[in-house]
Amino acid sequence: MASHNAHHLRSFHPASPVPQRPMLALGMRLASAFLFSLLLLLVKLTSDRGLWLPETLVWRQIVPGVVLFGWLGARGQWHRLRTARPWLHAQRAVIGAVAMTLVLGVVLLLPLAEATVLGFTAPIFAVILSVTVLHEKVGVWRIGAVLLGLAGVLIMANPHNSHLPIAGLAVGISAAFMVAIVSIQLRDLGRTEEPVTIVFYFSAMSVPLLALLLPFVPAGYDRPFHHDETSWLMIAGIGALGLVSQLLQTASLRYGRVSSVIVMDYAQFGWSTLWGWLVFAHLPPASTWFGAPAIIASGVIIAWREHVRSARIAAAAASDAWAG
């Protein structure tokens, strides 16, 4: 897959590189984290009202696709949807649909704060993937960060007296693994595609996949498309928040390094804890307050080492170019 992606990058890389604007990227990622925390809150509330998650996911994708298509049409800019990488968009749609199902599904199984913290293990999986798939050499800092993050997960899981169901933990960790893959895909696509293009094709291509689940609504949930006004407003809110949050997240990866912008995601823990307290009267237990800092510290260390590593590679490349 790596060589296939590299071929596409060589073939369709833009004439001029995308300008890096790190402060803008950080701001976008911070805003995205806030909006996504609100989205998770609405998903949890819609489930309490009897909406089945697959239908929520379908509307979550339909709203951005329709809005973007209409907005581009009104501006006479449908040409911005042209792409030379349709298969990579399709691949991103499949993996992204699975990741989104897990990310939104875990908040139905766990409290908001705990579900959010488990998502922060994505950098740990990124390091593990770099070793097992890309065969990269990993130094003591990143190895230590992975061990610290895994220790944080064990503290939160608290096998002897856990308040978290095993199914919720499994879904949360699986979601983080898929998010790690998606982040790599977004960075790759962002080299040649606009955020609007990436988000539109993700929405358009994932809707048919998610809609396959709609006929199988279990007992106890509303039938698809049969909801009251409040539920429809919440569905619209999920779609709108998803659109803006995803645009900001995708743009942040276009204008900044993954290792830098991902640190802003940790602000989501604070927001999720606040919503959990205000709406559900839930405050995380001691195991979460001890485990969460370890997981967050692990991600920060990994991001820092990635930044140092990238700076060294850039310096070495510049030195070689000067010497040549």
Which keywords apply here?
mainly alpha, globular, disordered N terminus, 13 helices
Question: How is this structure best described in words?
Answer:
The protein has 324 residues and is mostly helical. It has one domain. It is 76% helix and 0% strand. It has 13 helices and no strands. α4 packs antiparallel against α8, α6 crosses α8 and α7 runs antiparallel to α13. The longest helix is centred in the last third of the chain and has 38 residues. The radius of gyration is 20 Å and the shape is globular. 43% of the residues are buried. The N terminus is likely disordered.
Report the uncertain regions. 1-15
The number of helical elements comes to 13
Q: What summary fits the major beta sheet? A: none
Strand content: under 5%
**Strand-and-helix sequence, N→C?**
HHHHHHHHHHHHH
Oligomeric status of the shown chains?
A: single chain
What structural class should be given to the helix and strand makeup?
A: mainly alpha
| Number of domains as seen in the coordinates | 1
Question: Helicity level, as a percent range?
Answer: over 70%
Tell me the span between the first and last alpha carbons.
32 Å
Rounded to an integer in angstroms, the radius of gyration calculated over CA atoms is: 20 Å
Number of strands: 0
What is the global morphology? globular
Mean pLDDT: 84
What layout of secondary structure does this protein have?
Layout: H1 2-12, H2 22-48, H3 53-74, H4 86-109, H5 112-119, H6 122-132, H7 140-157, H8 166-189, H9 195-211, H10 229-255, H11 258-261, H12 267-280, H13 286-323
Helix pairs in contact: 2-10, 2-12, 3-9, 3-10, 4-5, 4-8, 4-9, 5-8, 5-12, 6-7, 6-8, 6-13, 7-13, 9-10
